[in-house]
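Structure in, sequence out. Go:
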C-alpha cells in the first residue's frame, strides 16, 4: 500500500507538492478531462499517454482516471437512445485509457449527487458536510450536496467549487432527488446492470479495471423522494460483484467513508467489507477517509477524529493483501485553508504514519 492523491486539473506546482509529501500515485478526477480530449470531445489515447508521462515526470504513477458517465443511468430508464450514444462514448474512452497506458478508470453510480443536508462545525471551527436523514429538505439537498466535482457550500453562500457551480457540465449529469422523478429499487438495479453490461466487455478486452464508487450516502428504507440507493449496503455491494463474478475488471473505488455511512457500527462494517472484497481482488483503489456518526446521521471528519478505527482498517487491508493506493477524500473546509492543501497534507501524513506503524 502507498499514499496518493485524487486531484482535479492539477498544476505542476500541485503535483510537486504531492511528490514532496511522499505520494507514489495520482488519480485524475477531472470530469470532464479536457486535457485528454480530442476535437470531438472524446479521449485521445495519445493525449492520455502524454498526461501519464507528465505525472510520471514527477516520480509518481498515474493509477487511474475518472470516466464521466454523465446521465447514462437515468437515461437508460427514460431515454434509451441517448443512453446508448453515451455508452458508445464511454467504450471509446476506455479504449483510449488502455492505449495511453492507464490501468484503471473510476466511475460513480450517483444519479442524484452525493446527498448532504447541511454544514456543521468541527474541530477548531472547520466546516464539515453532514447528512441527517431526519432533517432532509430538497432545498438543503440542492445547496449542500456534492455535484460531480463541485463541492458543497460551507454556509457562507460562496461555495468551495474547484471547477464550477452547480448546473454546469461538471455536475456530471446528476440532479436532485426531488428532480429525479422516483427511482425504485428495480430501476436502480436495471440502470446499474445496463451500465455494467455496456462497458465491462470493452474494459475486459482492453485490460482496464473499472472502479465503481457506491452510492453515498445510504438512504433510509423507502428512499428519499422515491429514490433508492441500491449500492448503500454490504448486501448491495455483494449483489454488484455478482453481476460479473469472474471478471478481473469489475470492482470498487472502495470509499471507506461511504461504507462507514451504511451502518450504525462503522468500524465493524468497514472491516467486514475489506475482508469480504479484499480477498476477491475487488478493491481497485481506496478513499481512506473517516466520518463521525453512522447510518443516516453523520458528518465528515478528519481521519484521526472520526468513528472508524483507521489503524484497524490499515491492518485489515494488509491482512487481505491489498497493495494499491490510499487517497484522502471529502476533507472538511476551512477559511484558513481555502485550497485544503494543508488539510490534505495532514491526511497524507496521518495515513503514512499508520502504514509505518503497521
Amino acid at each position: 500500500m502507498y499514499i496518493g492523491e485524487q486531484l482535479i486539473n492539477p498544476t505542476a506546482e500541485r503535483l510537486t507538492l504531492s511528490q514532496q509529501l511522499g505520494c507514489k500515485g495520482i488519480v485524475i478526477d477531472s470530469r470532464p478531462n479536457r486535457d485528454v480530449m480530442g476535437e470531438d470531445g472524446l479521449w485521445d489515447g495519445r493525449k492520455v499517454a502524454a498526461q501519464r508521462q507528465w505525472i510520471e515526470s514527477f516520480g509518481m504513477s498515474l493509477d487511474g482516471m475518472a470516466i464521466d458517465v454523465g446521465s447514462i443511468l437515468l437515461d437508460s430508464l427514460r431515454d434509451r437512445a441517448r443512453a446508448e450514444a453515451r455508452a458508445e462514448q464511454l467504450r471509446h474512452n476506455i479504449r483510449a485509457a488502455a492505449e495511453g497506458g492507464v490501468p484503471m478508470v473510476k466511475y460513480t453510480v450517483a444519479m442524484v449527487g452525493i446527498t448532504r443536508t447541511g454544514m456543521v462545525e468541527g474541530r477548531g471551527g472547520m466546516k464539515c458536510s453532514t447528512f441527517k436523514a431526519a432533517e432532509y429538505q430538497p432545498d438543503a439537498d440542492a445547496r449542500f450536496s456534492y455535484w460531480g466535482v463541485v463541492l458543497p457550500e460551507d454556509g457562507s453562500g460562496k461555495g468551495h467549487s474547484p471547477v464550477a457551480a452547480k448546473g454546469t457540465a461538471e455536475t456530471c449529469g446528476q440532479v436532485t432527488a426531488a428532480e429525479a422523478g422516483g427511482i425504485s429499487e428495480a430501476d436502480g438495479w436495471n440502470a446499474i446492470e445496463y451500465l455494467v453490461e455496456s462497458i465491462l466487455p470493452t474494459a475486459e478486452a482492453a485490460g482496464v479495471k473499472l472502479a465503481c464508487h457506491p452510492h453515498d450516502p445510504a438512504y433510509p428504507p423507502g428512499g428519499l423522494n422515491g429514490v433508492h440507493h441500491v449500492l448503500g449496503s454490504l448486501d448491495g455491494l455483494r449483489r454488484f460483484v455478482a453481476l460479473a463474478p469472474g471478471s478481473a475488471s469489475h470492482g470498487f473505488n472502495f470509499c471507506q467513508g461511504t461504507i462507514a455511512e451504511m451502518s450504525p457500527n462503522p468500524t465493524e462494517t468497514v472491516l467486514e467489507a475489506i475482508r469480504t472484497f479484499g480477498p476477491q481482488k475487488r478493491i481497485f483503489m481506496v478513499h481512506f477517509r473517516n466520518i463521525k456518526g453512522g447510518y443516516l446521521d453523520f458528518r465528515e471528519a478528519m481521519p484521526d477524529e472520526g468513528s472508524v478505527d483507521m489503524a484497524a482498517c490499515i491492518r485489515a487491508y494488509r491482512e487481505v493483501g491489498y497493495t494499491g493506493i490510499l487517497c484522502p477524500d471529502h476533507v472538511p473546509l476551512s477559511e484558513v485553508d481555502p485550497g485544503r492543501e494543508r488539510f490534505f497534507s495532514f491526511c497524507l501524513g496521518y495515513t503514512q504514519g499508520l502504514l509505518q506503524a503497521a
